[in-house]
Design goal:
By secondary structure, the protein is mainly alpha-helical. It is 64% helix and 0% strand. It has helices at residues 3-13, 16-27, 31-48, 52-58, 60-63, 69-83, 85-93, 97-100, 106-111, 122-131, 157-185, 199-207, 211-217, 227-240, 246-255, 262-275, 281-289, 297-305. The longest helix is centred in the middle third of the chain and has 29 residues, at 157-185. The protein is elongated and about 75 Å long.
């Protein structure tokens, strides 16, 4: 199999969420793994936005620890995407014989045309393989802490979005209560009124990543008191369906400068500017990074630090 094809397959099929949860569980008893879990969250965020070079560099300290073979497969895939086959082969050669001979790295050995007989004595290999079971239960030896990284708990932007949506549930509930009070005071007429956006249903659909269905519900009119929230979800759904323009984000920020969704909108605006090669993304992400206490601030700071 071609090395680049293998790298693309690995990035698609590796159980990234399970790998993250494994690090988190290890971190509950080992401070070193707790820090590594945070760093791996940054790696996943960089990967989600296509920053392969930065992600490949930041995963290196983790590869020096006793981790499942899946992490080494991810490290090789990132290095292929970042620097090509030769660089990935050098990373492969730097692994211990036991890791190189692990059953989960069979495809990588074949891609690099690496023969098992080059990997040392069979007895040593057998002993090392026993220690490298995919989810080892043996206690982890102490390792020097890696460089501190921003607290990033999620794996991908979709996971980050799910966490953010949980934080917004209380605000949605409050808006629903206010709307019920307003509806009670409005007279009922027989004339057909514009369809109102069911905000709670939209939020549920977005949480389930059912963006097309949410888009259909967002064609209506925002209920009184829910204009900012509805406007945000329109932007978010358009972003996921690749229908949003940079001007749309800018218009929202201008219309609602005090919105509780401001950091989310600016994050989407900065990433859109980055993808279009607009140098303004640095200013946008710098503004997000300065919003202390928001979810996207440490992630924006991490992206800027890689420049």
């Amino acid at each position: 199999m071609d090395v680049r094809t293998l790298a693309d397959r690995e990035l698609t099929e590796l159980p990234l969420i399970d790998m993250t949860e494994w690090l988190v569980r290890k971190g509950e008893h080992d401070p070193t793994f707790r820090l590594v879990a945070n760093e791996f969250g940054v790696v996943m965020t960089l990967l989600d936005h296509g920053y392969y070079s930065e992600a490949s560099e930041r995963i290196v300290p983790l590869l020096g620890m006793k981790v499942p073979a899946a992490f080494h497969r991810l490290g090789l895939a990132l290095e292929v995407k970042a620097n090509g086959k030769k660089a990935a082969k050098r990373r492969f050669r730097s692994l211990s014989p036991a890791v190189m001979n692990h059953a989960d790295l069979t495809d990588w050995r074949a891609a690099f045309k690496w023969e098992v007989r080059w990997l040392g004595l069979p007895a040593a290999v057998a002993l090392a393989l026993a220690a490298l079971a995919f989810w080892p239960d043996a206690p982890t030896p102490p390792v020097a802490p890696v460089t501190e990284a921003p607290e990033v708990v999620t794996v991908t932007e979709d996971e980050a979005l799910a966490k953010r949506l949980e934080e917004l549930e209380q605000e949605v509930a409050r808006l629903e209560q206010e709307n019920e009070s307003l509806q009670a005071a409005e007279p009922i007429t027989e004339e057909a009124a514009p369809t109102e956006v069911p905000l709670a249903e939209v939020e549920s659909l977005v949480s389930d990543k059912r963006y097309e269905e949410a888009d259909a519900l967002l064609d209506g009119k925002a209920k009184a008191g829910q204009e900012q929230a509805v406007g945000f979800y329109r932007l978010l759904v358009d972003n996921k369906l690749e229908q949003a323009d940079i001007s749309d984000y800018a218009a929202y920020v201008e219309a609602y400068p005090e919105s509780g969704y401001r950091a989310d909108v600016l994050w989407m605006k900065g990433i859109a500017e980055k993808k279009q090669g607009d140098a303004a993304y640095r200013t946008t992400l710098a503004e997000v990074a300065a919003m202390e206490g928001t979810y996207w601030a440490p992630i924006a700071e991490s992206v800027l630090s890689q420049e």
